[in-house]
Amino acid sequence: QGTVSSAPAGINVCAAAGCTASFTSGTSVVLTANLGTAAGVTWGVGQCTTQTATTCTVSMTAARTVDAAFN
User: Fold this and answer.
1) In angstroms, rounded to a whole number, what is the distance separating the alpha carbons of residues 14 and 6?
2) For the segment 12-26, what is each residue's pLDDT rounded down to a tens digit?
3) What is the spatial distance between Cα 3 and Cα 13, in angstroms, rounded to a whole number?
4) What count of other Cβ atoms lies within 10 Å of the Cβ of residue 27?
5) Residues facing residue 14 across a β-bridge
6) Rounded to 5, what percent of the chain is helix, strand, coil?
């Protein structure tokens, strides 16, 4: 259905199987959901510092996991 990419670059078209990337500590990473055929995306509760309908911003102060469920 959908994919996830990041800015800064590191995650590029991450699909259903999941993916990992390394970012410098202190970096603010914006994850963008590319919906494809999905109607929307739900980000994991409490995993984003801020979020919109298709983006999740994560502050890399420690190792982080973010879930994206496409619907």
Assistant:
1) 9
2) 767 666 788 899 999
3) 5
4) 13
5) 4
6) 0, 35, 65
Residue entry with tokens 């410098």: 24
List the one residue out of 18, 17, 33, 31 whose CA is nearest residue 60.
31
- Do 66 and 41 meet the contact criterion of CB atoms below 8 Å apart? no
The rounded distance, in Å, linking the Cα atoms of 62 and 69 is 23
Task: Give pTM, 2 decimals.
Answer: 0.89
Per the DSSP assignment, residues forming a β-bridge with 41 are: 70
Q: From the centroid of its chain, how far is CA 15?
A: 11
Distances (CA, A) of 67 to 41, 50: 10, 14
Q: What is the DSSP letter of 17?
A: T
If we measure between CA atoms, which residue out of 19, 28, 65 comes closest to residue 49? Answer: 28
